[in-house]
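Researcher: I'm preparing a figure for a lab meeting and need a structural model of a single chain. I don't have an experimental structure, so a prediction will have to do for now. The sequence is pasted below. Please return the structure as tokens so I can convert it later.
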Amino acid sequence: MKLAAIAVSVKPFTSPATPKLPIHPPKLKNTENPEFSWTPLRYNSVLTHSNSAKLAKNWMEYQGINNWEGLLDPLDDTLRSEILRYGQFVEAAYRSFDFDPCSPSFATCKFPKNSLLTRSCIGETNYKPTKNLRATCGIHLPSWIDKGPSWVSTQSSWIGYVAVCQDKEEIARLGRRDVVIAFRGTATCLEWLENLRATLTSLPDDMANVGAKSSGAMVESGFLSLYTSGTVTCPSLQNTVREEVRRVLEMYGDQPLSLTITGHSLGAALATLAANDINSKFGNASMVTVISFGGPRVGNQSFRCQLEKSGTKILRIVNSDDLITKVPGLPSWVQKHVEDTQSQLVYADVGQELRVSSKGCPHLSKGGMASCHELSTYLELVNGFVSSNCPFRATARRVIGKHCQKKLASFG
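Model: Understood. Here is the structure written out token by token.
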């Protein structure tokens, strides 16, 4: 069953002379520390490891067991550090992807699996990559497309990886062994085509939770296609994720274990689908958490309810000025009204939200629509976020100054 949903799309600029991909590898903006493509604040200590004892003791809270209650506003510094740490895993996925359409290895991982995290220059992670992940476009294209350039015809692309924490000291610091599944955002033409398939379609039975076969859970057709499609030579992303999660659970299931799925843009949508799929397939074998950056909406209200019932914990980092986080679906002022009467027909936001804003950051506020969606922007905003009353740390002193002036004036 398929139902049409209203969607807003932004067409990427394509030069008629030289085809360009909509997303480019992150650019290094901080020459002093090439590990980061965002500019760390000099007076901020979040780049160092968070308080080890606090994190180890309360790791389930930081993974969302209580829906991050009391940790988001104001933003807890340990949680901030963890969000940034997972953001680096996503950045590694971008840096490892071959974006060059003229390269014979276009749309593959540039680095060997074992050295992926090291060569992507995100710093020491103490995680070991164990599996490369590929996504396949499920759109049936005419045969003549195969004769076209690779940037048009590439059907399956490297989209991320699985990495397992193997360092004893890091496991002790985290309080458990952590498994990361990281996804990059849209990078190929066929992925863009899938993004634009914004109709809602029912989840396959094997992705529905036990007892929820007729729940009415529906998700975006294009995202589901990229997650479940495969070819004779390339298994689906779904099957690859399931096989690797099964292997990890068999190997480490008798010890404290967390599965953290993280992604940006399209990767955020795939992270949500993967989390739902893992909980549907493996039950409560371990804690499954999603940390997403700039993700679009994925499914309807029934899908949101299914995620909540399964215990899937999702923390969405949303830039108020990022259009992608508002699609597919209806404008928010219309959506709220329609949800009450036609909840199956519209998209719904999932999980908990950490809302930041480019307008709160002096040097990011002048950026355009595209810069609002960049992963580097998200990481910088999280790095500087204080609370909803003080959206960026650089403005804190000015806000406090005005508050003191008002206090003094009241005594005058």
